[in-house]
Design goal:
The structure is a single chain. This protein has a single domain, classed as Cytochrome c oxidase, subunit III, four-helix bundle (Four Helix Bundle (Hemerythrin (Met), subunit A)). With about 210 residues, it is mainly alpha-helical. Helix 2 packs antiparallel against helix 3 and helix 2 packs antiparallel against helix 5. It is built from five helices and no strands.
């Protein structure tokens, strides 16, 4: 039998918020990896830009009177929606930390609706760029960028749906409260990344 002194950890909590919990570290390291992927995509966009005199480049089927710039309507509407969606998500985050189940439930429902609406708006954004994915290098990188962010929107909305089901059907325990705060970080990240992508996709062609 060992006689060395040991530390008694039996009284420590099983879960904690932010840096106390491994879920927080796993979630944020994953977001760091995904951020690097978007950085590579953005670098590719600007690399391709320097190879063309006109950006977006012209298409043979476009007439001189047709403006090839991406339409701002749906992209701007989606940006406003995503920014506003952070309000209920902050409410969800605070409610989870305080153990207030009704606030988390109502906030998750609002966020779920925002996620679904954003995905629908994204469906209109693809044709609004006026280029097919296989039209040229510009069309390919814009569709790929929108597609990558759409994948995160879908993942985020599905995760919100699952946590919403849990919040209404199961006990509001500490483990899932931590999961909700991790979801909030992911939500803020998705919105923050889109602000950058929105500026690049919709305004770089107008100023460069």
């Amino acid at each position: 039998m060992s006689t060395r002194p040991v530390i008694n950890v039996s009284e420590l909590p099983h879960h904690g918020f932010d840096t106390i919990d491994p879920v927080w570290w796993g979630n944020n390291w994953l977001l760091a990896i995904e951020t690097s992927m978007f950085a590579i995509t953005i670098a590719t966009y600007f690399y391709l830009r320097q190879n063309f005199v006109q950006w977006p480049p012209t298409l043979a089927q476009l007439t001189a009177s047709l403006n090839p710039l991406p339409d701002l309507g749906f992209g701007t509407a989606n940006t406003i929606l995503l920014l506003l969606s952070c309000i209920p998500m902050v409410w969800v985050d605070l409610s989870a930390r305080r153990g207030y189940a009704p606030g988390a439930q109502r906030g998750l429902l609002l966020c779920l609706l925002c996620g679904l609406a954003s995905i629908i708006l994204r469906g209109f954004e693809f044709p609004a760029v006026k280029f097919r994915w296989d039209s040229n290098a510009y069309g390919s990188i814009v569709w790929f960028t929108l597609g990558m962010h759409t994948l995160h929107l879908i993942t985020l909305t599905c995760e919100t749906f699952l946590l919403t089901l849990w919040a209404f059907m199961r006990e509001f325990d500490m483990k899932h409260r931590v999961d909700i705060t991790a979801l909030a970080v992911y939500w803020y990240w998705v919105v923050g990344v889109w602000i950058v992508l929105y500026g690049i996709i919709y305004f770089v062609p107008r100023v460069m």
